[in-house]
Amino acid sequence: MxxxxxxxxxxxxxIDNSNSMRPSRERVVASAVAFATHSHPQDEIFALTFNExxxxxxxxxxxxxxxxxxxxxxxxxxxxxxxxxxIYDGIMSGLARLERAKHTRQVLIVVSDGGDNASKAKLxxxxxxxRDSDATIYTVALIDPLVRDGNPKLLRRLATLTGGESYxxxxxxxxxxxxxxxxKDIRNAYTLAYVPxxxxxxxxGRRRAVKVYVRSKDGRVLSVRTRDGYFEKTSExxx
Length: 239
Known about the structure:
Helix content is 29%, strand content 22%. By secondary structure, it is of the alpha/beta class. The longest helix is centred in the first third of the chain and has 13 residues, at 25-37.
C-alpha cells in the first residue's frame, strides 16, 4: 500500500528547560504555539520539559480541542530555563508517552543543545530505545557558541536514525522557520505498508531492516528520508 493522504499525527514537544536555553526561551514558546495553531485539527499534541527532571508541560490534547492562549500560558510557565540537563531521560520519557499515543504516525520534536550532564539513563540505552520506537524525531539544535557543553552531533543522529530532520538555526530569530519546516515535513510524509515474508525458524518480534529507493519518472535517483527498519510487533503484546 502506498498513500500520500494527509493523516493526523501524535506530536510530542521535548524542550530543554536547563539554564542554557534561557536566551531562546521566548522564541521557543512562540514557535511551539504557532506550530500547534497550524497543525492538523485532529493532531494530538503534548509537551514535556527537562532539566534535572522531566516534567509534563501540557498533557496530550487534540488540536481542535486546544485553546491556544491556554497552551501559550502553560508553556511559558513551564519553561523556566534553569538547572542542569537530562536529555537522555527526556527522550526516554517522550518515547514512553508516544507508546500511548492516539495516532500511529508519531513525532517527537526535540529542542535542545544536545548536551547531557544529569541523566540516569545511559546513551546506549537511549539510542536503542529510539531505534526500536515508531517515532520520527525532529531536532532543533540551539547552540551557544560560547558554551561548549552542547552536542549537536547527537541531535543529528537522533533525526537520522528515525527518518526525521535536524535543524540548527544560526540565530534565535530563525527558530520559528525551523518549526515551520518541521510542520510542513510532517504534513508531506508518505505512508508505505506491506506484509513481510516470514521464513522458517524466524524469531517473533525481531527487528526488520528496511531500505526505500525512489526514482523520478525520468529515472533520476531521488533522496528519501525513512527509518532504517522497524521492530516487529507480536500478537502477544496486543499491538
